[in-house]
Amino acid sequence: MFKKQAHFTRHTNDQPVETNVGDRFPLTIKRLGINGEGIGYYKRKICFVPHALPGEIVVTEVTEANSRFLRGKIHTIRQASASRVEPRDSYADDVGGFELEHLAYPEQLKFKRDLVEQSLEKFKPRGYQHYKIRQTIGMDEPFEYRNKAQFQVRMIDGHVAAGLFKTGSHELVDLPTCAVQMPVTMKVMRQMVAIIEALEIPIYDEDQHSGIIKTLVVRVSRGTGEVQLTIITNSPKLPRKRELLAQIAEQLPEVTSVMQNINKGETPLIWGDQTVHLAGKDAITETIGDLDFRLSARAFLQLNPFQTEVLYDETAKALNLKTTENLVDAYAGIGTIGLSFARGAKQVRGMEVIEEAVADANFNAQQNDIHNASYEVGTAEELLPQWINDGFSVDALVVDPPRAGLEPELIDSILFARPAKFVYVSCNPSTLARDLVDLTEEYQVEYMQPVDMMPQTPKCEVVVKLVRR
Ligand code: SAH
């Protein structure tokens, strides 16, 4: 209590804003925040309201109140936006992954471009007011695009359920349908739920620390139609394994690979370190452009195969590589970017931290008859300076980091090596803008090209062409 008063006295001119959980008030929504939530101001305090849209007046019910911000949910919509559409998934309000399903798609694309602008405004990298930010390249049909479903499995009211946790909780929402998933991933997922329930295989229980099956991962190749199923378990043993595999073979002929990943105990990570091959092949093959890619269970691949080629085409255009130039493919995954460009390069080197992915990348070079590319296990921040030290001339560089962006050590060695051609593929405008603050000491942003890899969500991918000053 005392602490709170101390807070109020710092703002002697302001009236303490006493807003409590459960309070309701009409709120005008001004804009969308980085997570796709509506933002308005109540008694001068910022208020986040998921699923509310700019221009709307919504009666907001407060769900969280503290000294810095309010969070609320829509009680009723008094004045709806002309851009509001009916979400396809009835549970779109409850779980993550559908944050923008109520917003017309052209507006989603505008929002993603705005996100890039907002992030630049926040971090203000050199010259940011003049960056050319192009219109977001979207999909013609922005549904049924995700090639991978990774669903938690729990018991709900005596039945097996597979879905996602309610936002900010560990309460599972069963997802019988999901409009952003490629249909075959949902078909396999739901059939697996039925098979597991019929065989009465024990399901993981977080409270009791008991049960076996925690998560099901279904990933489909758009190019070959092959489906890989990974069962993530709380123990190496999988009761009724033989019957389970027989049922999968009989009922799900599209499943060409069955794996088990073991992740014991309570952990925020979904995947454990040990992966066991149960049936069929031990990987699936995806095709991108005219190349084949072996894809292991734990290896990363872009989630939207329809837009992956668009993303890589934009990367290729921005890079404009010559056959006399060496390319570094940093954060390489299974080598998709570097190998797609290898025929137009002198030599390609790439690095990636997941061992299985690096093995796939080197295998993928061989199986596509590419002999000027090699991949190594390790972090970009460790290996790039080593390669430069060893005398490898980095003429061109593509970085495609996870949401956290680039490590300072990597930025230092980029600024030191100053590759003439440099493209940053970012899945997070915030860390991109942050990294540009340092990178623009030596580079200029020629343009930024947002590409929508994740329709119906606030996630935004950007290809940035950088040129030396
Ligand atoms: N370029 C690939 C993968 C991009 S995702 C594609 O288009 O498919 C980012 C990848 O970076 C993941 O595979 C992740 O395992 C890897 N990674 C994460 N941290 C890394 C680091 N510090 N150094 C190198 N790779 C890293």
TrEMBL record:
Molecular functions per Gene Ontology: rRNA (uridine-C5-)-methyltransferase activity
Domain TRAM: 18-76
Binding site for S-adenosyl-L-methionine: 302, 331, 352, 400
Assigned keywords, A-Z: Methyltransferase, S-adenosyl-L-methionine, Transferase
InterPro entries tied to this protein: MeTrfase_TrmA_AS (IPR030390), NA-bd_OB-fold (IPR012340), SAM-dependent_MTases_sf (IPR029063), TRAM_dom (IPR002792), U5_MeTrfase_fam (IPR010280)
Family: Belongs to the class I-like SAM-binding methyltransferase superfamily. RNA M5U methyltransferase family.
Protein name: RNA methyltransferase, TrmA family
